[in-house]
Amino acid sequence: MAPSRPNHHHRRPTYPLAHSQRVKPRRWPLVLRFAKGAVHGIIVIPVVLHSLFTVLIVYLDRHVTGNLGLPPTIIPSLSIVVGLMLVFRNQTSYDRFWTGRNCLTTIGTSVRNLARAFLVSARAKDGAPPLTDVERADTERIIRILIAILYAVKHNLRAEWNMPPSAASGLVEGEGGVTTAKAEYYALLPDGLEGFEDQGLGLPLQLTVLIESYIRRGFERTWFHGPQASQMTVQVNGLVDAYGRMETIRTTPIPVAHLIHQKQVLALFNCVLPFATVDDFGWWAVPIVAIVAFTLYGIEGIGAQLEDPFGYDKNDIKMDGIVEDTRQEVMVLLEEWKATGREGTRFY
């Protein structure tokens, strides 16, 4: 007898990556969803307005003038232009989403690689005295800074400027005002660290300077040989490069000329559609126009949401979960390193 297949509706992710994976089974088919993750809220106004405009055209054509209809052949020529513009918008927006996700993976991978290399290499050579408390504290501090870089990247991409002169204040100044920061984030930052975001220095870049300084100290302590230290610097450079590309996505919107023309073309197409359908369909033109407007404005709304994928929307990158998963992984490595150091054994 063949083994039964698992019920995927009740599947749960494994513990690693648990925060960035979906954990709730879908209770309703996606075709019946109109709230969470859908774009209906941002397209309802244009759909209703076009439907009401169609009601007006049908009424005038049926009861007043009787000659408002246009040849239906006008629709294919306009639909080609609308289709091309929507395809360009969605492809561009999803490319920004996909690139942002890959850059976040690059940053997380660099943090994992550097944490692994630091913990394995921060040890005394055979026959040498064990690490001093200062050296162990230095390594623990730098691992926490590595994790803090992930939080700093996340907050800066959301325009949540999060490093006041005193991190102990626990406040973040963002576009929405002052909000309470997560305690675990500030616990990762070194004591006495002063931010310079008001002078134009991003906290992620400031923290990478501390990482580079640790690599230099490790080389001077003979923890790293030259090629290994060079490779670690490459990892830091890759992290900064990925963050720069995410900044480019965040600060470079779709050109306003394209957005204006796209809105105008969409409105023009849906305003012409009632005139091209009123003679053949009568009052049925109202639901037809509503469906077409729902489809076209929905596609445009998806592109608008994916344009900036670093926020809190349901369709944005799950940055909170991804950062939390990486934090948990690296902290487990750090705690194991601390435990093996207390027992006098090596962590490798």
Automatic annotation (TrEMBL):
<keyword id="KW-0812">Transmembrane</keyword>
<dbReference type="InterPro" id="IPR044669">
    <property type="entry name" value="YneE/VCCN1/2-like"/>
</dbReference>
<dbReference type="GO" id="GO:0016020">
    <property type="term" value="C:membrane"/>
</dbReference>
<dbReference type="GO" id="GO:0005254">
    <property type="term" value="F:chloride channel activity"/>
</dbReference>
<protein>
    <submittedName>
        <fullName>Uncharacterized protein</fullName>
    </submittedName>
</protein>
<keyword id="KW-0472">Membrane</keyword>
<keyword id="KW-1133">Transmembrane helix</keyword>
<feature type="transmembrane region" description="Helical">
    <location>
        <begin position="34"/>
        <end position="58"/>
    </location>
</feature>
<dbReference type="Pfam" id="PF25539">
    <property type="entry name" value="Bestrophin_2"/>
</dbReference>
<keyword id="KW-0406">Ion transport</keyword>
<feature type="transmembrane region" description="Helical">
    <location>
        <begin position="70"/>
        <end position="88"/>
    </location>
</feature>
<keyword id="KW-0813">Transport</keyword>
